């Protein structure tokens, strides 16, 4: 090892989450719970980081004993340019949420949001079939890109997408290909006709924000409807879909499942996502 490679002190491994703001993050509670549950000596720390300090912080953390971190707004895109290795899925999505600091000092960037999205559906709607019919994704931000990638990977044959700013959904179609069909925001209700899987990937419906207002007349009661927003757990959109007889899956499970691969890489144990995990994170 040369002098400019970070040393890996043989002490308690550290992980954490960087973002700005970060106080609202539930990740420290989640990882802290898993560390206690599995009796692992480690710590998970929330760290407010300004964009102008990002590169410096990423250089410093491995030297302080960090084995990796989660990354949230506003750093998810910028970390890709600072990482030494980027997984194909993070590159395709254009953002990373999980960094691994390797013993050789290299930073490895991954995106586990899509994995978390699918794992949540598989756990809470075990008979969900990705190829049962078209999927409809509302929103075209960073989280929507992860959802689109994971739905296509799972075997969805037609993926409809709409976004207030249409150019962003067209950009996603240009990158993700022929299975995508772009709908105008004003036509979002029509997009639901015949859809087997419907996803709100906008931030609408979050506490303090307006609800997502998409006419649900065309929504089939056979559709599975899910929302990435998890504060509140049951968003107005999910409540409306449930009232129409649809199965609904809230967004908390995605948050829990996307965290599991990072925890495993950093602390050496695959954590279980179960009712107790949900309860602790909600407390
Ligand atoms: P983002 O990149 O900022 O995208 C925000 C999306 O919401 C865009 O599609 C945006 O449309 C839309 N939007 C915002 N305000 C709107 C309004 N007034 N009317 C219509 N559309 C509006 O955010 P993101 O990272 O994709 O996150 C989206 C949501 O998913 C957030 O609530 C986030 O907390 C949640 N999320 C949850 C998980 C989980 O684990 N459950 C993981 C990641 C994200 P425009 O393009 O037109 O602005």
UniProtKB/TrEMBL annotation:
Residues 17-99 form the Shikimate dehydrogenase substrate binding N-terminal domain. It catalyses: shikimate + NADP(+) = 3-dehydroshikimate + NADPH + H(+). GO terms for molecular function: NADP binding; shikimate 3-dehydrogenase (NADP+) activity. Its EC number is 1.1.1.25. The keyword ATP-binding does not apply. GO terms for cellular component: cytosol. One of its GO terms (biological process) is amino acid biosynthetic process. Residues 135-203 form the Quinate/shikimate 5-dehydrogenase/glutamyl-tRNA reductase domain. NADP(+) binds at residues 88, 139-143, 163-168, 228, 251. Keywords: Amino-acid biosynthesis, Aromatic amino acid biosynthesis, NADP, Oxidoreductase. SUPFAM superfamilies: Aminoacid dehydrogenase-like, N-terminal domain, NAD(P)-binding Rossmann-fold domains. Residues 251-274 form the SDH C-terminal domain. The keyword Cell cycle does not apply. Pathway: Metabolic intermediate biosynthesis; chorismate biosynthesis; chorismate from D-erythrose 4-phosphate and phosphoenolpyruvate: step 4/7. It comes from the Bacteria. The active site is at 76 (proton acceptor). Shikimate binds at residues 25-27, 72, 97, 113, 230, 258. Involved in the biosynthesis of the chorismate, which leads to the biosynthesis of aromatic amino acids. Catalyzes the reversible NADPH linked reduction of 3-dehydroshikimate (DHSA) to yield shikimate (SA). Homodimer. Belongs to the shikimate dehydrogenase family. This is Shikimate dehydrogenase (NADP(+)). The gene is aroE_1.
């Amino acid at each position: 090892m040369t002098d400019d490679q970070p040393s890996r002190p043989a002490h308690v491994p550290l992980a954490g989450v960087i973002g700005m703001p970060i106080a609202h993050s539930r990740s420290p509670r989640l990882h802290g719970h898993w560390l206690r549950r599995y009796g692992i000596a480690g710590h998970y720390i929330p760290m407010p980081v300004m964009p102008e300090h990002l590169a410096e912080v990423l250089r410093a953390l491995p030297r302080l004993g960090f084995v990796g971190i989660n990354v949230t707004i506003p750093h998810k895109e910028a970390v890709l340019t600072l990482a030494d290795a980027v997984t194909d899925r993070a590159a395709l999505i254009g953002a990373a949420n999980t960094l691994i600091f390797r013993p050789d000092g290299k930073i490895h960037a991954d995106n586990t949001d899509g994995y978390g999205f699918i794992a949540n559906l598989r756990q809470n709607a075990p008979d969900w079939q990705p190829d049962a019919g078209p999927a409809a994704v509302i929103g075209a931000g960073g989280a929507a890109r992860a959802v689109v990638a994971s739905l296509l990977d799972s075997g969805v044959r037609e993926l409809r997408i709409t976004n207030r700013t249409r150019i962003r959904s067209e950009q996603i179609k240009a990158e993700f290909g022929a299975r995508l069909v772009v709908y105008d925001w004003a036509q979002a209700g029509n997009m639901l006709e015949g859809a087997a899987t419907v996803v709100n990937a906008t931030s609408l419906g979050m506490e303090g924000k307006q609800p997502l207002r998409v006419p649900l007349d065309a929504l089939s009661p056979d559709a599975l409807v899910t929302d990435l927003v998890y504060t509140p757990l049951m968003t107005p959109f999910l409540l409306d879909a449930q009232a129409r007889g649809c199965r609904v899956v809230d967004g908390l499970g995605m948050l829990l499942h996307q965290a599991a691969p990072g925890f495993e890489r950093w602390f050496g144990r695959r954590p279980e996502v179960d009712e107790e995990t949900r309860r602790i994170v909600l407390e």
